[in-house]
Amino acid sequence: MTEVIGYCVKCKEKRPIANAVQVTMANGRPAMKGTCSVCGTGMFKILPPEKK
Ligand SMILES: [Zn+2]
Fold first, then answer.
1. Model confidence over 2-51: pLDDT tens digits?
2. Do the domain assignments include residue 52?
3. In angstroms, what is the span from residue 5 Cα to ligand 1's centroid?
4. Residue 17 CA to ligand 1 centre (angstroms)
5. pLDDT the model gives residue 2
6. Which structural domain, as residue segments, surrounds residue 17?
7. How many domains are contained in the chain?
């Protein structure tokens, strides 16, 4: 699995997202959901739209 980097609001730094899973938001955009690998805070990262 590729490592996903997101912004942790608690660390106030970019961190790898642990246990990242891809989800689809209500508007159909892909996003990654997981926890901060350092402090365990929930993280959410909006992904760029897929190009078709
Ligand atoms: Zn953190």
1. 789 999 999 999 999 999 999 999 999 999 999 999 999 999 999 987 67
2. no
3. 11
4. 9
5. 73
6. 5-46
7. 1
